[in-house]
Every structure is written in structure tokens, then in C-alpha cells.
Amino acid sequence: MSRIWSAGRLTYLALTLTAFLSIFPIYWMFVVASRTSDAMGQVPPPVTPGGSLGANIARLFENTDAYFLTGLINSAIVAGTVTVSVVFFSTLAGFAFAKLRFRGRNALLLVIVATMMVPTQLGVIPLYMLMTKLNWNDRLPAVIVPALVTGFGVFMMRQYAGQAVSTELIEAARMDGCNTARIYFHVVLPALRPAAAVLGLLTFMTTWNDFLWPYAVLNDPENPTVQLSLRALSDGYYQDMSQVFTGTAIATLPLLLVFIVFGRQIIGGIMEGAVKA
Amino acid sequence: MAVQLDARPPVAPAPPRPSRAARLSRFDTRYSPYLYIAPFFLLFGVFGSYPLIYTFWVSLHDWDLLGAEHTFIGFDNYTQLLADPDFWHSVVNTLGIFVISTVPQLLLALWLANLLNRQLRARTTWRMAVLIPNVTSTAAVAIVFAVLFGREFGMINWLLDLVGVDAIDWKANRFAAWTAISAMVDWRWTGYNALIFLAAMQAIPRDLYESASIDGAGRSRQFWSITVPLLKPTIVFAVIISTIGGLQLFTEPRLFNSGTNAIRGGPLRESQTVTMYMFENAFAPHYNFGYGSAIAWLLFALIAVVAAGNVLLLRRLGGGVRKEGD
After folding, report:
1. CA distances (Å), origin A193, targets A188, A220, A262, B25
2. By the CB < 8 Å criterion, does B276 face chain A?
3. What is the pLDDT of residue B14?
4. Residues 120-159 of B with CB under 8 A from A
5. Contact call for B32 and A23, based on CB within 8 A
6. Each residue's pLDDT tens digit, B99-129
7. pLDDT confidence tier of residue B24, bands split at 50, 70 and 90
8. CATH value at residue B255
9. CA angle, corner A109, sides to A107 and A114, nearest 5?
């Protein structure tokens, strides 16, 4: 490798600065979450954790503006269900598009790619009206059901299945008398596992993080997702900032844990998707 | 290849009557693919494409939540919108935030990718460090940044004070509010774009750089003459993704503002984006679905126009650097 690729001291300095700027707001969120509310007015601002985290958590969970515990449980239900469903249906359809021959395959795939281009805002109002008709307003199916499939997931699995699933193996399984469903479960799904894991992680994070659609359709303050609890907290009449920051910290924690455990796979997924796009 | 001397068609043995199992298997291979893709099309049909089409129909009506009648009014909502100063105000806000967030974001991402593309110790750790803003909760981050940009006790103003700059009222000044919201967007997305650029950079053959350096091209010359032109497809991709995302901006400006005027983006609509304006009209307080739907369609048109404009601009900028036909 030639000299131009080596990283000098300046490179490390610049990266350290970037990393600091990336991490600081998150770190500071935990600092304020663990302090009393007067931390906000101190000069200079405190940068080390305090001892009030427990008290803040207790106040947060008792706060009847936020219904924070309900929000956490609801978000776990929504993100969990949506993740399982998106991974299952995406691997199924991705397999079909990559490895099975059927009439209209290319046209249908094009439809799926096109769905990825349309902004969600465009459908928000009629979707809201539809939910009213189904009597799902203010209830979790309103946020779960429209998210059960994504064009992105199908497309990603189709790209991956094309190279990861060997056609010979499928043919051999067929010779041995496997029907297509058995082939999916015994040959395809195991081969797709790494990409399915990445899709699952990305889906979980997106769903957990979603704000716009729950904000539109879940208007009952007693039945929020966790992001809506945060909104209720930050819009409150009084501003108990350490309590609000405890909320933001807890709402961010699942995402951070997922990222710390699976960071390598998530980065790999993002970078792989970029090359193919 | 064997030469066929005999012109008669080969005699095929009469096909045996297919067994039940064989017929079942034929049915399986021919039709089961549709079964596998059906869930997507069924669910997307009902909850994705039907609303898209219906939203246009709604936009042609005077469609109030409380009104019993939905009068067909043609394009009246659209003509009314085009003369609505609050709508145009939100368009300017959206475009302003979009421009001052996307341009530095993509330039920074390019620079960061270039740094990450060197031989680094603890490679994965650096990549995780730049991506971490992207995996946080947008709502949480918007709330935290709103506090960082607070007028009285915000850390940004405190830092500015250290270098002798007077406190800025980030929420009350239109341009300042745009800057604060852009800072959130950049914080969240720069690392993500850097990783996308990094992936594309790693696909560039290294001997290109070696021959360039033999020809005497310095590091920055190599960056602008090899890396950037070869990255053009990826840059176009990133620009389009940023356009779609940037023009739909909602969570950050909505939570940057809190209290009674939150959906208006502040008392004087300092940071109200088009999506926020759509929410204000379609849901509380106005519940005017027809007008809201018309805003949604104009937003879609705006995204399409800006995305197309970006692609044309990028094509022009890169003209002559790469050969035609790639």
C-alpha cells in the first residue's frame, strides 16, 4: 500500500474531534438526566453525572402528562411486531423475486422500487381517514399494520438473495422433492440470515424512532408511543428539564444498546447498500 | 456441435399422464411465487397506494372533518394555496433549512469519508463513533438540541459568550432557527453519508491513485480529480436521499418548538416547514382535509422539482470529467 493511505496525526485529531461532537450531545443528555433541575442554570454547565437519576426516573414514571411506561411498552410492542413482520415478508418476497420465475416479475419489482420514492406525507391524511373508518384511531394497530411491509425490505432482500442463495442448491432441493415452501424454510432462510438480521435491526430502529405517523393518529394522551411521551414532556407547561432529559435518555437507550451490540453489522449493511444503490 | 443430417423431427415418446404429485409440483412452481409476494402487494395496496390516490381526490374537495357534505371544488384548494402567504412562508423555510443543512453536510461527509478511507487503527470504532448520532431517537435529539440552543442557559450561547459573541435568540430569529435546526440535521446525517461515501471510495481501484501520484498529483489534486468524479453516482444518490428527507423535515422543527405555537414553528412561523403547515391545516386545529391534501401534493411536486434540479446541476458540474456513457 502506498504512503498516501496512511493516517497521520492530523487525521486522528480530526477524527477525535468529530467523534467528540458526535457523542457529546448524547453524553450530555445522560449528564442532565442524572442531575437536579438546577443543573440547567449553572455556569459553567456541568459535564459530569450527578446522583439524581433514580429520583428523576421516579418522577418521570409518575408524570401523568407523559404516560411514559405505557409509551415504552407500546413502542416495544409496535417495533417488535413490525420488525418480525417486515423481515418475514421481505425475505419471502425477496426470495421469490431473486430466484423464482414468474410472469410479470420485472414489472412488479419495478412497482416495489417505485414505492420507495414516495414520501410518507402524501398518504397521511387518507390513511388517517381510513383508520377512523376501521375504528383504529388511538389504537396500536393504526401504527402497526401500515408498517408491516416495506418496499425497502423486499428490495434489499432481493439484492442479497441473488448472490447469497445458490441456484444449484435450490434445484437440488427440488430434485429431492422439496416444494417451494420447504425450500424457503430450509435453504433460503438460513442463507439470508445475515442480511435479514441487518434488515431487522434497521427496521426496529426506524419503527422505534418514528414520530410523524404516531403523532398524527395516536391522539389519546393515555396511549402514546415513547416518542409521543417525549413530545408531551417537552410541551408541558412547566419545564422540569432533568425529568425531560431522563425521558429522552431512556427513549434513546434501546437504540444505543442495539447499536453497541450490533454496530458492526449495521455499518456493514449501510455500506453494502450504498455500493449496490 | 453435432450436425443434424436427418431433417425429420426427433420422435418424442408420448408424455406419460402426469401423476398427482407432479401436477401439484407444477402448480407449486408456477403459482407459489405470487403467494410469496402477495402480502406486500395486499398490504401496500390498502395502506400505501390507496391513500396516495385518494389524497388527490380529497384535495379536490372542500373536505372538513366536521362538515357532513364534501363539496367538489376542483382545483380551488390549489389556487387558494398558491395565493396563501403562510404556505409560501413554509416553502421558503423548508428550502432554506434544506440548503443550509445539506450543502455543508455532504461536503463534511466527503471530507470525513476521506479521513476514514486511510489506514486507521481501530477502524470499526471510528466508524461507529461517526454513525452514533444516526441511531439515536430523533425526537429525543430535537429536544436536547432545543435546550442546547436555549437563549438564557443554552450551552451554545454560553460557548459563544466565551469568544465574545452576544447571546442569540435561536427560536425568535428566523435565520437563527434555521441554523439551529440544520445543526440537528447535520449532526444526525453527516456520519451516515460519510459511510456511504466511504463504501464507494473503497471500490475505487488503488492503482489509479498510484499512477496519479507517479504523475506528480498531490493528495488534494487526486481527491478532486479521481475520488470526487468517480463518486459521482453515489453523490447523486446521497443528494436525492437528502432532498427527499430534507424537504419532508418535520420531527426536528416540531420539537425544536414547544408549547402553544409548536405546530406553527414559533409565534411568527419562524421555522414552520411545509409538512408542519400540512399538519396544522389537516389536523388540529383546522381539520381541513382537502386543504391539507393539496399541501401534500404540492410538497410532492416540490420534492420532484428540487430532486430533478439537483440531478441536472450535478450532471453539469461533473461534465467533461468522466467519459460519456457511464
Report:
1. 9, 38, 14, 27
2. no
3. 59
4. 120-121, 124, 126-133, 135-141, 143-148, 152-153, 155, 158
5. no
6. 999 999 999 999 999 999 988 889 899 999 9
7. confident
8. 1.10.3720.10
9. 95
What CATH number has the domain bearing residue A115? 1.10.3720.10
CB-CB contact of B93 with B272 (8 Å): yes
Query: Closest approach of chain A CAs to the CA of B73, in angstroms?
Result: 18
Asked whether the beta carbons of residue B187 and residue A22 sit closer than 8 angstroms, the reply is yes
How far apart CA B297 and CA B55 sit, in angstroms, is 8
Structural domain for A169, as ranges? 67-225+253-274
When divided into structural domains, chain A yields a total of 1
Q: What are the tens digits of pLDDT across the range A87-96? A: 999 999 999 9
In a domain, B208, yes or no: yes
**Cis omega (within 30 of 0) on the bond before A25?**
no
The structure's pTM equals 0.88
Query: Measured between beta carbons, which residues in chain B are less than 8 angstroms from residue A111?
Result: 41
From chain B residues 64-93, the ones with a CB under 8 A of any chain A CB are: none
For residue A216, list chain B residues with Cβ-Cβ distance below 8 A: 279, 283
Task: Decide if pLDDT at B318 tops 70.
Answer: no
Asked if B287 is an interface residue toward chain A (Cβ–Cβ < 8 A), one would say no
Buried b / exposed e over A25-64, threshold 16 CB at 10 Å, is bbebbbbbbbbebebbeeeebbeeeeebbeebbeebbebe
Which residues lie below 8 Å from residue B165, measured CB to CB, with a gap of 6+?
A: none
* Whether A45 and B129 lie within 8 Å, measured CB to CB: no
The CA–CA distances, whole Å, from B141 to A48, A65, A234 equal 19, 20, 12
B158 vs A6, higher pLDDT: B158
**What range does the domain containing B192 cover?**
84-286
Instruction: Note the pLDDT of residue A1.
Output: 43
Q: What is the ipTM of this complex?
A: 0.89
What pLDDT sits at residue B78? 93
Q: Most A CBs within 10 Å: which of B60, B143, B254, B263, as the mutation test of the A interface?
A: B143
When CB atoms are compared, the residue of B47, B118, B129 closest to A145 is B47
Inside any domain, residue A258 = yes
What are the Cα distances from residue B295, in Å, to A121, A216, B122, B274, B286? 10, 16, 48, 8, 14
Q: What's the rounded Cα separation, in Å, for the pair B37 and B176?
A: 48
| pLDDT per position as a tens digit, B34-56 | 999 999 999 998 888 888 888 88
